[in-house]
Design goal:
Strand order of the largest sheet: 2-3-4-7-6-5
CATH superfamily: predicted glycosyltransferase like domains
Helix content: 10-25%
Distance between the termini: 25 Å
Oligomer: single chain
CATH class: Mainly Beta
Largest sheet: 6 strands, antiparallel, barrel
Number of strands: 7
Structural class: mainly beta
CATH topology: Thrombin, subunit H
Number of helices: 1
């Protein structure tokens, strides 16, 4: 099967905290943790027991391999039910600084060496 993604996915085993952003652009006080499955310059996927809706937005902080924290806004774009009852979600970065995107690019380069 041909790869259609513009950016290569990289495994990243971390837990991140999500904070939902409602339609008025206000974040709710509901936080929860998810386990990141992989990350790329354009988005990430994660596994959680939480039920989430496609098309919703979350503010997140992702601690990367260097222990630095990337601040990003993500949109849920895909959902898959896993056999163990958990949910796998695919997300795209809506708000990600060029500096933080570069950190992901550098991580990819080091993983390919």
């Amino acid at each position: 099967m041909e790869e259609k993604r513009r950016h290569k996915r990289l495994d990243l085993d971390v837990a991140i905290q999500l904070e939902r952003i409602d339609k008025d652009g206000i974040t709710t006080l509901r936080f929860f943790h998810v386990n990141v499955h992989d990350i790329s310059r354009s988005g990430l996927s994660f596994v959680t027991e939480q039920e989430m809706e496609i098309g919703t937005y979350y503010d997140t902080k992702i601690q990367i391999w260097t222990k630095e924290v990337i601040d990003a806004v993500i949109e849920i774009v895909r959902h898959e039910d896993l056999p163990d009852g958990r949910n796998k979600y695919g997300c795209v970065f809506i708000g990600l600084s060029d500096t933080d995107a570069l950190k992901i690019d550098i991580y990819q380069i080091f993983n390919e060496i």
